[in-house]
Specification:
about 230 residues; Arc Repressor Mutant, subunit A; seven-stranded mixed beta sheet; two-stranded antiparallel ribbon; 9 helices; elongated
Amino acid sequence: MYTIHYLKDGVMLVRPIKVYMEETKKKFSDKVINRLTLYHCILTDYILKNIEFISSPQIAMLLNIDDSQVRKDIGLLNNVGKCRVGYIAKDLKENIEKTLGFEKTKDAFIIGAGNLGSALAKYDNFTNYGLNVLALFDNDTLKVGMKVNDKQVFHISELPELAKKLSVEIAILTVPREHAQKTADFLVKSNIKYIWNFTPTVLSVPSHVQVWNENLMGNFLQFTYQK
């Protein structure tokens, strides 16, 4: 299996990338997008190591998946290359970036400036995938005015105006469970269209708002269940 770093990059970034995929009407499933982001991580490593070519069996071995699945996924990109000889790593990486819209910046707010929200604000690799966190919001007056990784923490009451002013449609929700639904309702009223939900709560939102649930404990149990 590949390292947890890649799983973190790949799994987490399926959500904001889906915004771009919907805008461009691409019909890739979440699983395909997830695998493509993992391929991108591997390709980045190869390029940094000055390795020019990569083959589908090499990718498959690193991720412990079937070689045919890798070829099928890459085939969706209309990538120029010979799977048995090897793909040009730089070209394949750029093709994935173009297909998934890494160059199309997607601005977002983090809601909740606690431990998880602050950790996400400090995760600089988001920008490599086109996700630009502009600011954090909280109702704790002791946190308002602080900066996390050069990102300002604003009072939650300022979100509607700033969302409208900056045309932000994505919110990353990291508030405590008991405040999740009420905060989601507030985000909907603030014209937020996409909620990346890190809370252990199933949210109820109107049909025009999309929610992606980041089930951290579910992901953990997937690899511990059979131990």
